[in-house]
Amino acid sequence: MLVSLRKEISEEEFHRNFSSTKASHQTLLCFGLKEEDKTLWKLWGHAYNNPGQCHAEILVLREIENYLMTNIPNAAKYNITWFLSYSPCHSCCDKIINFFMNSQTKIEFNIKAAKPYQFSNDQNPKGIKMLNKLGILFKMMEYSDFEECFYLFVDPCTKFTAWPDLEAQSIANITLSHHLLGQEDNRLDIHLFPPDDCTPVHARSASHFEDQVLVDKIPPEDPNKTPYKKDEFLDIKAPQKTCFLSRTREHGKDVKRKLF
């Protein structure tokens, strides 16, 4: 089964795929769908891309479409949340836009990505920029997003332990994303830009800026490898599971899914 419904991922899977300081040769997508006025998700699960055949985004869109075709009369609006290990490529952005525009019900769509996927290819940022223009919210994940994803799809009763450099790499990814998409975020005042460097993306090449922000983070591409995903940046082991009872009591009631 390509899409695993109502099934959590392991802690090892989470850290292997979502770590912002590692690169995987696959994409993991954790998703949830709920009616706007409800708290529990009607549909949730995860999917990996099917190499050479179908991206994870397309597999999940098909599953959501099938659900909505049967359940459209049940709600006036649906909320969809995606946590992606990599940002969507331009082709997947086109598919998301088609789904969003052709949906027979109102949808609020939120996409959160752990790592940028080939932002040096101008078409990929352009696809994401179009998502935002149409009201599909896209962002690179920060600490709170990784924590939320962990509690929703791994274990709400285990403490989320950040891997080394999560904060630094997340800020670099977010800053790069905002630069390429022509956005501004006052929270990211980390002196990566000169005072007058607030011009749109076309004023400077993406590759030049990427070299500045992610210097020494991404090794050169190996021409003999499949160019889908980059090699691992660092060999960092997943943090060990620890008991976190206080977090369980405080956070468990906020989990927006139901196990079956």
Description:
- With 260 residues, this protein is an alpha/beta fold.
- The protein has a single domain (3-254), classed as Cytidine Deaminase, domain 2, CATH 3.40.140.
- It has helices at 11-18, 56-71, 90-102, 123-133, 143-153, 166-180, 206-213, 245-251, and strands at 3-5, 28-35, 43-48, 77-86, 106-115, 137-140.
- Strands 1-3-2-4-5-6 form a six-stranded mixed sheet, sandwiched between helices.
- Helix 4 links the parallel strand 5 and strand 6.
- The longest helix has 16 residues, at 56-71.
- The two termini are 18 Å apart.
Sum this structure up briefly.
The chain is an alpha/beta fold and 260 residues long. It has helices spanning 11-18, 56-71, 90-102, 123-133, 143-153, 166-180, 206-213, 245-251; strands at residues 3-5, 28-35, 43-48, 77-86, 106-115, 137-140. It has a single domain (3-254), classed as Cytidine Deaminase, domain 2.
Count of DSSP strands: 6
Q: Which term fits the overall shape? A: globular
* CATH topology title: Cytidine Deaminase, domain 2
- Indicate the CATH architecture: 3-Layer(aba) Sandwich
Note the beta-strand portion: 15-25%
Helix vs. strand class: alpha/beta
Separate helix tally: 8
Q: What can be said about the biggest beta sheet?
A: 6 strands, mixed
The CATH superfamily appears as Cytidine Deaminase, domain 2
Radius of gyration: 18 Å
* Major sheet: arrangement of strands: 1-3-2-4-5-6
Please report the distance between the alpha carbons of the first and last residues.
18 Å
